[in-house]
Design brief:
It comes from Nonomuraea bangladeshensis. The chain is of the alpha+beta class and about 425 residues long. It has one domain: FAD/NAD(P)-binding domain, CATH 3.50.50.60. About 25% of the residues lie in helices and about 25% in strands. It contains nine helices and 22 strands. It is globular, with a radius of gyration of 21 Å.
């Protein structure tokens, strides 16, 4: 069976991996767009603290987290996955009680989270933290390097015969895939769906999750932005022009790629890719700006993830690196780091971890999280040969490999391991 996977992020890479494992002939088309979420994600795997009122959303993320150890064993490759635990922190111990109750309720069906315990001095585990904080420790939480796991999945798929095409993919009305060598994206070329843009377009993430979900802070209040054109000159990577509407125009008619089935895992660009099929999918980008810092001579590899009830997360990686993020901004297709965004991340991060004041700013990243407006993720068939898999929002690195597995099962006509009705495209 010939399957084309549109999108080379973590969902598309996982789909290619599972498809080739089932003997399918796979072609991955990767546009390499500026702002792809996998390239920027921090890599937090701690689903048990979120979506307290949405069991279906939670189930997808729980199964995604549960699948990681098996994936590590299958791939036999170090892609940065490590169970380092997560500290849920607050200056007010009373704020920890609702999440403690949630974890206790979920423990029976998710013992992999480990026994949750109180931590009287969280700075003993994450030294830069303020000494005014109280914390709960969730020992089963893990962190993963999104770029590395994506690379491992693609490498394994290629070793099994998958082909990777660099270029932008389009669909014809009958579902034929065409690959274009280069794309320009003037702002007037495309249409867009934006939050609050019409009836029935509700915010996709409920309040009440421990981790921040809704746009907040000064960076989020900047309003819609126009994406700049190509840039260079300061040593940063060139920025491909991606319009506010994600509209794409091409200099060629594209090269057709034969397929018996197609998986569209195009992240925030999925709606635009699927529009020729007559599917108006309300998928939109939610920007996240992330800061990487280094602490010379400090071993940060096994520091736990830090999850405040409101504000930034923090986590350590090997190489004396600490990640702080992220902003949550509905500003359209504007994959750029802003002064306001960095200010928000820095101020909030130092409030929680003042010991980072002397750290070296090493890198900034920006990603466009794909959000499906009606809620939850979007995984299901659009027609008899096209499957869509996107909308994981801030949980792409938690559930991405598992979502790719689900999409692969659908493309092959197999029964997925969980009921996908809650994630099906809305009529």
């Amino acid at each position: 069976m010939r399957v084309v996977v549109i999108g080379g992020g973590i969902v598309g890479a996982a789909a290619a991996y599972y498809l080739t494992g089932r003997g399918a002939s796979v072609t991955v088309v990767d546009g390499g767009y500026q702002g792809e979420a996998t390239q920027a994600g921090a890599g937090i795997v701690c689903p048990w603290v979120d979506h307290p009122e949405d069991d279906d959303w939670y189930r997808l993320n729980r199964e995604g987290a549960r699948a990681y150890p098996g994936l590590v064993e299958e791939l036999g490759e170090d892609f940065g996955y490590a169970k380092v635990g997560a500290l849920l922190v607050s200056e007010d111990p009373a704020e920890l009680e609702p999440v403690r109750s949630l974890l206790q309720r979920r423990y029976a069906d998710a013992p992999e989270m480990g026994e949750v315990v109180d931590v009287a001095a969280p700075a003993e585990l994450f030294p830069p933290l303020s000494d005014t904080l109280s914390a709960l420790l969730v020992p089963g939480a893990a962190r993963v390097d999104g770029r590395s796991v994506r690379g491992a999945l693609l490498n394994a798929a290629v070793a099994r015969g998958a082909r990777i095409h660099a270029g932008a993919a389009t669909l014809t009305p009958d579902g034929e895939v065409r690959v274009h060598a280069a794309a320009g994206t003037p702002a007037e070329a495309g249409r867009t769906w934006t939050p609050g843009g019409g009836p029935g377009q509700a915010r996709s993430e409920e309040t009440g999750s421990w981790r921040q979900a809704a746009p907040r802070g000064p960076a989020a209040a900047q309003g819609p932005e126009a994406t700049p054109g190509p840039q260079s000159g300061n040593g940063s990577e060139a920025v491909r022009p991606v319009a506010a509407g994600a509209g794409r125009v091409f200099a060629d008619e594209g090269v057709p790629v034969e397929a018996d089935a197609v998986i569209v895992a195009g992240g925030a660009w999925t709606g635009e890719v699927c529009r020729p099929l007559g599917a108006e999918l309300p998928v939109f980008p939610r920007r996240g700006q992330i800061l990487h810092a280094t602490l010379e001579g400090v071993d940060t590899a096994w520091w736990p993830i830090v999850l405040p009830s409101d504000g930034p997360y923090l986590l350590g990686f090997p190489g004396s690196r600490v990640v702080i993020g992220a902003t949550v901004e509905d500003v359209g297709f504007a994959p750029r780091v802003t002064m306001g965004g960095l200010e928000e991340v820095l101020q909030a991060g130092l409030r929680v971890a003042p010991g980072l004041a002397g750290a070296t700013m090493a890198e900034t990243r920006v990603g466009l999280r794909p959000v499906y407006a009606p809620g939850r993720a979007l995984i299901g068939p659009l027609n008899s040969r096209v499957v869509v898999a996107t909308g994981l929002s801030a949980y792409g690195l938690t559930a991405g490999p598992y979502a790719g597995r689900l999409a692969a099962a659908l493309a092959l006509g197999e029964t997925p391991p969980i009921d996908l009705t809650p994630y099906a495209p809305c009529p």
